[in-house]
User: Fold Cellulose biosynthesis protein BcsQ from Micromonospora matsumotoense.
Amino acid sequence: MLVAVASVKSGGATTVAATLAAVWPGESALLIEADPAGGDLGGWHRLPDNPGLASLANACRTGQVDLSEHTTRLPFGVDAVLAAAGRPQASAAIGLLADTEPARWAKERPTLVDVGRLEPGSPALPLLELADAVLVVAGGDVLSLLRVALAEIPVERAQLVTVGPLAYARDDLDGLPMPLVAQLPWDRRSAEVIAGTRRARQAWTRVDLPATARALALSLATQAHPAGGDHR
Assistant:
């Protein structure tokens, strides 16, 4: 399964995508940084971005792809394809990757693609069309939800994931352009683990944000492999 994770303004997509990868049920999930503004995880954890997104994109153009050659194990236990921190380098690699057949790089394991902020003309927009599910991450406050309501979401099957307290009752969100599928708590400790400023304890995925995100990951995985249905 290929899941794209995006935001409308700023922040949240990387943390949610990384958390979902950490708690994905069953087989281990892969996280790909595809934010045109540049990757964060390499800088946060002082890890090189090569091999990474650029090498994966080039491999997809030339033939057979071995994902293990382009992934890095992050300190909190997630395998990731890291993007360069610079916008030009990241954007170029994303453009190349978006032009390739996703079966070349997303067939081996569940894959979460962090596409960052949704902007017109973003080279990551084709990845949304290739995805089986698109999650849009936003705060639960009034202003963030207003931005969601006014946003031009490029895919009809987008689903909303809020982080932090929700300003409205769920029944009052019918005017939004996408359904709310998960309300996640703001969790500073988990955010710091993902950002590399706090050491990941063995049980860090069992409480707070990861524990809540586990239900969303299970729901997405179930959509990919429905009981009695065809597996993708």
